[in-house]
Amino acid sequence: MSDKKTTGKKTTGEKHLMFFSGRAYPELAEEVAKDLGIDVTPTRLHDFANGEIYARYLESVRGSDAFVIQSHTEPINKWVMEQLIMVDALKRASAKRITVVLPFFGYSRQDKKGRGREPITARLMADLFRTAGADRLMSVDLHTPQIQGFFDGPVDHLFAMPVLHRYLSDKLDPATTTIVSPDTGRVRLAERWADQLGTAVAFIHKRRDLDVANEVKVHEVVGQVRDRTCVLIDDMIDTGGSITKAADALYEQGATNVIVAATHAIFSNPAVDRLKNSRISEVVVTNTLPIPEEKRFDKLTVLSIAPLIARAISEVFNDGSVTSLFEGDA
Question: Which of 108, 119, 230, 269 could bridge to 143 as Cys pair (CB 3.0-4.6 Å)?
């Protein structure tokens, strides 16, 4: 009988959790694996001369409950393709169940047709993972909840709000704080934040220029912001144009301080310069995406999402409740 060491975790000789990572963000994968108490399964990944990607697992994955994590950072198309190839390899190697872990779901903003002759690329992404062999998706703060319906299988939609809330709750006085949604699409989330913190809520009416990418025109502020600390919440910060204009609008309406809290720090140029040079006092994000040193600045606070992902993986593996992570014993 072989005594060869394998990674992962087995329960009563029946279930075997194995955890895999692509090359996009190995630091987050290692952090999640540490919280799970296991090792990332050794995987050979490399590029051929023409850019094609090769993947092979260095241990047997037969019968395993496989979780494969990849953050869709830049170059996004390469890392999406690598994760698809990894899922296909797991399927062909007879993994029992494959869960795709997407801390940041690439193309999630393309979730509907705003005008004719446009794609719904978020649906295409879900179809690609299903075709590759994924049984389940897990992601953090999807751009819109309806993306869960694009995948023909279970989707675990994790929320970063508890992570951000724990950090901010000690810094804020509910009596003088307003949670602000940067647009009408985030009002429900802002209301949940306000309920948790016991604060007022406001939102900013804005209109996006459909012909110019990443261009936003901010209009009026609706709600009580004068002489208050405002916490602007959003799911992602890309170029920073929308959030900095929203902060300017709040200051124009008499806000004394503006803090930004967002889940995904995409930080495409010129986001860092815009945020550094803005009147925003602090930018709080999670590490769903890698943030290299050159994109870090004094006002930036990065919180770890790894414990939340690890707990969700444990609940799925043990047939527990992911909902209980956010709604008590639900």
Answer: 108
Spatial separation of the C-alpha atoms in residues 111 and 28, rounded to whole Å: 26
User: How many Cβ atoms from other residues are within 10 Å of residue 39's Cβ?
Assistant: 16
Query: What span, in angstroms and rounded, lies between the C-alpha atoms of 66 and 144?
Result: 26
Q: Quote the CA–CA distance of 166 and 182 in Å, as a whole number.
A: 21
Instruction: Kindly tell me if the per-residue pLDDT of 261 is higher than 70.
Output: yes
Cα-to-chain-centroid distance, residue 212: 25
> What percent of the chain is predicted at pLDDT more than 70?
92
pTM: 0.92
At 311, is the secondary structure helix, strand, or coil? helix
Q: How far apart are CA 275 and CA 253, in angstroms?
A: 20
Cα–Cα distance measured from residue 109 to residue 160, given in angstroms and rounded to the nearest whole number: 18
| Contact yes or no for 274/283 (Cβ under 8 A) | no
pLDDT per residue as tens digits for the range 126-152: 999 999 999 999 999 999 999 999 999
Q: How far is CA 51 from CA 23, 123, 211, in A?
A: 14, 26, 33
Single-letter residue type at 194: A
Which of the following is catalytic: 96, 112, 113, 206? 206
223-248: pLDDT as tens digits: 999 999 999 999 999 999 999 999 99
Q: Is a pLDDT exceeding 90 seen at residue 302?
A: yes
Please choose, from the candidates 49, 52, 112, the residue with its C-alpha nearest in 3D space to the C-alpha of residue 84. Answer: 52
Q: Is 286 strand, coil or helix?
A: strand
Please report the beta strands in 115-267, taking only residues with DSSP state E, as ranges in sequence order: 136-140, 155-158, 177-181, 200-208, 216-222, 229-237, 257-265
CA-wise closest residue to 100 among 28, 46, 160, 22: 22
Name 47's bridge partners: 53
Judge contact between 238 and 216, C-beta under 8 A. Answer: no
Query: Is 91 labeled as catalytic in the residue annotation?
Result: no
